[in-house]
């Protein structure tokens, strides 16, 4: 599974600048080392909102990673007598 990483705002604006200069989405994606769909969504957001800033995300940040969640579930199944239902 690939790692998700966020593009900083400086790279987001640089990508928009490159596309305004005439570079294709594929070329921009290669320069940033991201998928073309990431660049396409960025461009669509820029065209509709005139901004490329990240939107605020509601909710509490995760306390555990998905790997830790899997480990905890596995541990609970292995040691059923130590966990409380």
Automatic annotation (TrEMBL):
> Which molecular function terms from Gene Ontology are attached?
DNA binding
**Which UniProt keyword terms apply here?**
Paired box
Coarse class of the protein's main subcellular location: nucleus
Subcellular localization: Nucleus
Q: Which residues form a coiled coil?
A: none
Q: What are the Basic residues biased-composition ranges?
A: 76-85
Task: Give start and end of each HTH cro/C1-type domain.
Answer: 20-42
Q: Which GO terms describe its biological process?
A: regulation of DNA-templated transcription
Under the heading InterPro entries, the entry gives: Cro/C1-type_HTH, Homeodomain-like_sf, Paired_dom, WH-like_DNA-bd_sf
Q: Which parts of the chain span the membrane according to its record?
A: none
The name this protein goes by in its record: Transposable element Tcb2 transposase
Query: Per the UniProt entry, what species is this protein from, by scientific name?
Result: Trichonephila clavipes (Golden silk orbweaver)
